[in-house]
Amino acid sequence: MKERQLHCIGWRATGECRPNGPRTPDQDLSCFTRVPSDASGYCEVEDTESGKRFRVGRRHCDSLKHDAVFRCSDAVGFANFPREAREVVDKALESAEFALPNVGSVVSEPRDGIVMVVYPKVVASAYATIVVLREILSCKLPIEIWFIPREMDPFPGALDTLLDLVGVEGMGEIYFHEVLDPLAVGFRVKVHAIYNSIFERVLYLDADNVPVRDPSFLFESREFLETGAMFWPDFWHPSSSIFNIHSRSLLWEMLDIPFVNMFEQESGQLLVDRRKHAVRLELVRFYAFYEPDYFDRMKLVHGDKDLFRLAWLKLRAPLYMIRTPPAVAGKVINRSFCGMTMVQHDARDPVFWTHLVTFRNTSERFDYVIDTYSAEPEFAKEQNCYGQRELVRVGIDDGINTFPVPSDQAGIAEELVHEEAVPHEAHAATQIAMSSNYTLPHINASAVKPRDGIVMVVYPKLVPSAYATIRALRDILGCSLPIEIWYRPDEMKDTPGALAPLQRLAQNYSVGDISFHKISSPVAKRFVAKIYAIYRSFFDRVLFLDADNVPVRDPSFLFESPEFKETGAIFWPDFWHPTSTMFGLHSKSLLWELLDMPFVDMFEQESGQLVIDRRRHAAPLALVVFYALHEPNFLVHYKLAWGDKDLFRLAWLNRLVSNAGIGLSDSFDVFKSRTYNLKGQEDEKDDVAAFEENITMPEHPISPFYKRGDGFDSSVSRDRGVMVCMHDGVLSMGLSLIRELRCLGNKELIQVYHCGEEELSASTVELLFSLDDRLEFVDACSDLESQGIISTNMTTKFRSWWIKPLAMYHTDVRHVMLLDVDDIIMRDPAVLRDLEGYVMTGTTFFYDRVLTKKKLLIGNDGGKLYLRKLLHEFDYARFNVSKGLNPSQHVFETFAFKGRSCHEMDSSMVLIDKERAGHTVMDIMLWFITEERFRFMYSWGDKETFWLAFELAHVPYSFSPKVTDSQN
Prior knowledge:
Blueprint: E1 6-14, E2 40-47, E3 53-59, H1 75-94, E4 112-117, H2 123-136, E5 143-147, H3 149-152, H4 160-163, E6 174-178, H5 188-196, E7 201-205, H6 222-227, E8 229-231, H7 251-255, E9 269-273, H8 278-289, H9 294-297, H10 307-314, E10 320-321, E11 327-333, E12 336-343, E13 351-354, E14 356-357, E15 371-373, E16 385-387, E17 403-406, E18 415-417, H11 428-431, E19 452-458, H12 463-476, E20 483-487, H13 489-492, H14 500-508, E21 514-518, H15 527-536, E22 541-545, H16 562-567, E23 569-570, H17 591-595, E24 609-613, H18 618-629, H19 634-637, H20 647-653, H21 667-680, H22 686-689, E25 706-708, E26 720-725, H23 731-743, E27 749-754, H24 762-771, E28 775-779, H25 780-786, H26 792-795, H27 803-810, E29 815-819, H28 836-841, E30 843-847, E31 860-861, E32 864-865, H29 866-873, H30 889-893, E33 905-913, H31 914-935, H32 945-953
Parallel strand pairs: 4-5, 4-7, 5-6, 8-10, 11-18, 19-20, 19-22, 20-21, 26-27, 26-29, 27-28
Antiparallel strand pairs: 1-2, 2-3, 7-9, 8-9, 11-12, 13-17, 14-18, 15-16, 22-24, 23-24, 25-28, 29-33, 30-33, 31-32
Helix pairs in contact: 1-8, 2-12, 5-8, 8-10, 15-18, 18-20, 27-31, 31-32
């Protein structure tokens, strides 16, 4: 296309708010006069060679935003812009050798990876995103981090947090690239990074964009494989847009493409095959780097937000735009909603479960309206809110409702995540009769002004997270609150120098102290360490933060908030509430009887952050300590609470009066009576005293059902352990297995489970104690019989391999590795916990051989195949499994479900993280072995019990991809 030699004649005004309306010459303007944003008309230009005149920049009254700068002197360049874009595309298409930088052959295996761009203020966000990807989602995709050196120079060490991740075990490949192109600034850095990436197929993520699922699967999704490009919609569409992209926008003339009626693009995430779409990315680069920047000057698009879809549309290239519009997540206070976070979806979700639904997917698109507003006085004036403020406008009531919204219907669905404002009024302190001289450690009662500060607890793996959080507090948020870092020396000694990054950080800051405190109490392990740190803090008023909890605002204001001044305690809600809980905290829970308090219908607590005035709340904090340390610990034993998660709110809510329960012999009532005495400040302070430095209490259960030798190494952790089920008849094999484990370097606790004392002779016990100092015997049957969980007659039914799932139910070890005594191992099996499946689900199961006999899982149960009948008729409600029938994809792929094998799982080696499995899995496992196996022989021995319990509880699990082999 030949370039026309044009020059500007001037602005020609028209009426009726359309470019073809009647002329209004009295409003004409010169080429260099700024045209009002609400004017209609066009620029008249002339071809200097032919003398022909043309209309350029044809505008309606709303073709531009109010802040756009438009002069007809730009009309010549504006008119030539689509021609220059076409030349760039033609040049790329005509060259047989054209390819983007670092792109290999289309026929070679593509290299997939994640691309991120950082600058000082988003380093903390990038760190959090990477940690989530690696440690929580187990994503192994390599990551590129692009940055402009001159942006980092004013902030020495700004990249250190990310650089420190390189080489850290489990962090995978992370590469850093400097952006040296002087034109690559602002949003252009993103385009530059994608254009120059070393990956052929790129997932771009904004630094503050946190996935909730390992995004690796996107590269193999049907939509991406077919198109090579997957984009995500923004809130806005032509009927409701804050960016003015609609049918009358000047954008379409500039790009020389017809108006496209679709959602705008949200480019916080992009998935592009750079091999397939080199030409499209060349056009994006042209759009982004073109000078003068008409997109910005005339406010036609916002940054790079829509450049990718526009380039694809211009070249009519295939792309897949996610069909489900984004949801809004935020808070509700006094029925006033403030949306603060965008929630995106993937392409394949068939159902979206929401707490509150504004529109069904059958709604028309013009019903999908996202307002921008200030929600004063419920929210701060400076807080920008998105969504719709008034709940009544969208038909939301005060209840929590869930609706399945199919994604394959026409229209839209909006998700609002409801975060109910729960008042945490700490009336307990005034109701508890504490003695006037009782105070927590390190409280300065005479001080006029309280000392405020932040408390953290760290162990080696959390040091990088704590480092990032502190850097964010100091460098980004300007928080000068002093910080206490509490740690256990015995945990740190296994990782020499683990604390060094935090100690260097403490030396580098002149604002705000950072002090280090040892946790020496032997009972203050795992979640109890948090309670210990808060109980013994040197601050009067404490903000506790989990080490991986990164604030987005200086949290100092919390200490002066009216809510905190009034109550002295601020807590935060968890996702779960009595009608939807994975922890069993509902009205029928045994918890309320144990604590002798009425059921409280409220959200559960998320204790990753707590604000507490220790001067005002000594009593409930002492009660928290009591809950955590009481032995026997019924909260843990019966899985009534999850760690410390709800202990704080329960201590604050507890309103017992000290009378009737005292002195009763029943163990539950004894627990209650001791609670009364603690509240009455009589002499029972044993559990609280355990936090004083001169008192020690054992971590290992003290019970007649546990046996340990005189030389038992009490320092061994109960976080990880090996479980072996034995009787005298298999002593030689069990002894061999234990020796093999130790020779291969395994130093974990070994639990030898049995059913009744008669199964193991005194000589067997003595022999094993003499050979291993990290071994204990556990009589699960007698213990569970004493608790009434199984009957006396039932105990005899577990003197077989059926004891294995019973032992799994019983053990208090978190990461359990169950081994058969006849296992022959060539390597420490603890390495199995590093498998992707275990990292993702906390389980590793192994397949059994295929056996086609019509029994067991594929046996005839009342005229139906057992497994299928089980999935359909299982009493999900009994175990509070809310969704009912909801089989996983795995179960459909099993040979058993297809009727091709009566076996599925081999249970000679089973790995389970009991904390992640949860109590529902264990309760269903107990049902299988105490009820179901006597109704129908569903399994050869215990084999299928483990995976079936996870399947029915709807808890993810993982099988090793390796098939079973046989050795003769």
